[in-house]
């Protein structure tokens, strides 16, 4: 079946059906979506190679209910602190967050030449990334903030008492100032308009030295992971190619600096990128020239 949908990143035609899913995931079942006649398809863009999650058997308006139910389903009856401690206790080399922390800290250390820097993590979740960063690189951190829309997760983050917390969707109503580093770890795939979202993120980045780290699921997941994998579920709007992620940054007014794809310790296939605001290119050239 052909679709007239276009890519939200580059407006290219969605013309390659990479994976058809015929069974609702647990979030869809929670809001009453039936398996009868169910069909959802990941369709790849002909231009940038990023895949879009296309719901062919029901209205996309239902997505609002699914997104609202995310924490209700994922954290129902769960001791959130115990889950946090379980992830924190993973041995070194077994945690995706360990490698994420080292990627960001190493890049920031070179970028800021060993000077301290401020960082905001948008969509902080359980806060494992920030806690690990604070634990290992506290001397480098001038200011550390978590932005998290879910009140349960935000209360958990606040109780940790090691960084400031804003319980809000982004952009926040609260004036949070500007940061040297912005991180988006497995967040952008939830956003219907990623270019518009990143355009707003630019407003909280330092105009002269701001850098961004973005990590998203790889489009290769559709061929290399089971169709029941959470990454392929209804809550994710896009699966990215390296080209698609780079194009998203460019169209949002950012400059891609490093784009790569990896397989994480958990088995997740991931694309990540470092980028900067245009005003920081001089700083980048000075760092890379040494």
Task: Write up this protein.
This protein is of the alpha/beta class and 290 residues long. The protein contains eleven helices and eleven strands. It has helices at 26-30, 62-68, 70-74, 80-88, 96-111, 128-137, 151-160, 194-201, 221-224, 242-251, 281-288, and strands spanning 14-21, 40-45, 51-55, 117-122, 141-147, 164-166, 181-185, 211-217, 238-239, 255-263, 269-276. It has a seven-stranded mixed beta sheet with strand order 6-5-4-7-8-11-10, sandwiched between helices. The protein has a four-stranded antiparallel beta sheet with strand order 1-2-3-9. Helix 5 packs across helix 6. The radius of gyration is 19 Å and the shape is globular. The model has no long low-confidence stretch (mean pLDDT 92).
Helicity range: 25-40%
Distance between the termini: 53 Å
Give the SSE string.
Answer: EHEEHHHHEHEHEEHEHEHEEH
Query: What about the largest sheet?
Result: 7 strands, mixed
Report the sheet-strand fraction. Answer: 15-25%
Oligomeric form: single chain
Structural class: alpha/beta
Rg over CA atoms, rounded to whole Å, is 19 Å
Which descriptor suits the 3D outline?
globular
| Helix segment tally | 11
Low-confidence stretches: none
């Amino acid at each position: 079946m052909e679709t007239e949908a276009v890519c939200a990143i580059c407006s290219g035609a969605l013309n390659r059906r990479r994976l058809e899913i015929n069974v609702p995931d647990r979030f869809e079942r929670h809001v009453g979506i039936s398996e009868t006649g169910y069909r959802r398809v990941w369709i790849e863009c002909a231009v940038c190679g990023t895949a879009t999650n296309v719901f062919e058997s029901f209205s996309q308006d239902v997505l609002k209910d699914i997104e609202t139910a995310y924490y209700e389903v994922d954290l129902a009856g769960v001791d959130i602190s115990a889950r946090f401690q379980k992830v924190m206790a993973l041995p070194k080399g077994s945690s995706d967050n360990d490698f994420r922390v080292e990627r960001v800290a190493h890049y920031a250390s070179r970028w800021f030449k060993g000077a301290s820097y401020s960082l905001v993590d948008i969509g902080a979740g359980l806060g494992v990334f920030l806690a690990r960063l604070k634990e290992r690189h506290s001397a480098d951190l001038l200011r550390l903030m978590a932005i998290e829309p879910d009140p349960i997760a935000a209360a958990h983050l606040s109780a940790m008492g090691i960084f400031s917390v804003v319980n809000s969707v982004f952009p926040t109503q609260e004036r949070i100032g500007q940061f040297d580093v912005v991180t988006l770890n497995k967040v952008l795939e939830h956003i219907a308009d990623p270019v518009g979202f990143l355009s707003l993120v630019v407003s909280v980045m330092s105009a002269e030295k701001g850098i961004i780290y973005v990590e998203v699921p790889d489009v290769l997941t559709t061929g290399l992971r089971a169709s029941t994998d959470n990454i392929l579920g209804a809550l994710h709007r896009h699966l990215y190619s390296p080209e698609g992620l780079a194009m998203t940054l460019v169209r949002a007014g950012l400059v891609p600096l490093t784009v790569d794809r990896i397989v994480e310790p958990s088995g997740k296939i991931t694309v990540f990128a470092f980028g900067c605001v245009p005003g920081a290119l001089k700083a980048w050239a000075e760092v890379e020239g040494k």
